[in-house]
C-alpha cells in the first residue's frame, strides 16, 4: 500500500497502536503498579527485620507485646477465601454467567470488608499503640499499610460490583473484573506474607 493510500485509509480514524507485548496494556499497567507496591512492602519488611536484629530480644515479639495470633489466623482464612470467590467471579463472566459474576463479587467484597473490620477490632483490643517502642511502630506500619491496600481493593471491587449489576461485563469484555481481581490476589498474597512474618515467625 502506498503512503498516500495508507494515509487515506486512516483519514477517519487513527491507526491501530503497535504493541510490543502480548499482554493487554491495562493488565501490564496493573502488573507494573503491583511491582512498585512489592518494593514498597519490601522496604517495610526490611525495617521490620532490622528492628528484630537490633533489638536482639530472646523472644519475639518483645516482652509486654502480645499478638492475637488465632484471630489473625481466622482473618487470614477469610481473606484467602475471598481470593477463591474472586476467581469464581472472573471465571463465571468468562463463561457468560452473569449471576455467578455478581455472586462472586458480592461475596468477595463481603469477605474483604469482614477482614478489614476484624483488623480494626483487633487494633482496638491489642493493648499497645504505634508509639510503643519500635515493635509497635513497625507492627502498625506493616499491618496498616496492608489495611490501606485492602481498602483500595474494596473500592475497586465495589465499582466492579456496581458495574456487574448494571450489565457492563460480557464474556468478551471483562477487563473491569480482571484488573481488580489481579490487585485483590496481590493483596491476599501480601497478607499471607505479613501474617507469617509478623505473627508466626
Secondary structure topology:
Blueprint: H1 3-9, H2 25-55, H3 69-94, H4 98-125, H5 133-165, H6 175-200
Helix pairs in contact: 2-5, 2-6, 3-4, 3-6, 4-5, 5-6
Structural commentary:
This protein is mainly α. The chain has one domain (19-54, 70-200): Four Helix Bundle (Hemerythrin (Met), subunit A) (Up-down Bundle), CATH 1.20.120. Helix content is 75%, strand content 0%. 23% of the residues are buried. The model has no long low-confidence stretch (mean pLDDT 86).
Question: CATH superfamily, please?
Answer: Cytochrome c oxidase, subunit III, four-helix bundle
Query: What's the β-strand tally?
Result: 0
The major beta sheet can be summarized as: none
Percent of sequence in beta strands: under 5%
Topology order in helix (H) and strand (E) letters: HHHHHH
Q: Estimate the mean pLDDT confidence.
A: 86
Query: Helix share of residues?
Result: over 70%
Distance between the termini: 65 Å
Q: Could you say how many structural domains there are in total?
A: 1
**What is the CATH C level class, in words?**
Mainly Alpha
Overall CATH architecture: Up-down Bundle
